[in-house]
Amino acid sequence: MEKNAKIFVAGHRGMVGSAIVRELQRQGYENIITCSHQELDLCRQADVERFFASHKPEYVFLAAAKVGGIDANQSALADFMYYNMMIEMNVIHAAWENGCRKLEFLGSSCIYPRLAPQPMQESCLLTSALEQSNEAYALAKISGLKYCEYLNRQYGTDYISVMPTNLYGPNDNYHPTHSHVLPALIRRFHEAKINGELYVTCWGDGSPLREFLYVDDLAELCVFLMNHYSGNETVNAGTGKEITIRELAALVAEITGFKGEIRWDTDKPNGTPRKLLDVSKALGLGWHYKTGLREGIRLAYEDFKNNPLRAER
User: Fold this and answer.
1) Which end of the chain is more exposed for a tag (fewer CB within 10 A), N or C?
2) 174 counts as catalytic
3) Out of 29, 137, 168, 289, which one is annotated catalytic?
4) Average pLDDT for residues 106-117, to the nearest whole number?
């Protein structure tokens, strides 16, 4: 990407989009186009088409999405499919119609089968059944990456996709019921400490294994891939390291200063038992993550404390 090229970051107010904007600015890109939801509803096809026809972005990072944890995914299956499908199809199609030189689609590791061989390689996509608790979201994300692939194959576009593992960091969503596991734990343990509670109850039995990537490390990879990768197959983004939810809860309790007991509600779902990405492709391209989990959680907690309104989103 040329430093003065028009670059549109869709979803710039979210955790991933804002990190991509920070990374682009750090690297000296000067012509970044952003648009709030109030200014442009990406679910409205005609509005998206007018926006692209007017601005003609040369490069697009598609980080806009409707996201949430297990509870949100299970309670709003139709919403997660509809909003994500509409956002993806409208933006990708408008980019193609208006001659966008390259587009990068941001997905999620939940696209892979529930019982995929571990660590999960990019090639295991669609080889068996998905995790039921987030199937609607996963199907939408699979559709987005496949649409990029099909445009490449039919029209010769240069559209790529990246599938991150569980993300966390600045500008995360700490909503009490709609957040992912790590920000949910940060909020829960922080509030328990402030309120002097004797224990915190977490979902499931704590046995599932999860991988976590600091969002600024993902943003660096996203810009790197835009400059150095082309291909129909997606690229996994992760650390290649995993931790049990039980161990994660203990680590978050330590970092937030919570001294009480951690209890487990085994009537609540665990989700996918294990979800570790094979990141050998990204490593082979020359990228490696920088931020360790303990340091990343510490940075995320400081961001949470310094931005209390984020807890209400």
Assistant:
1) C
2) no
3) 137
4) 92
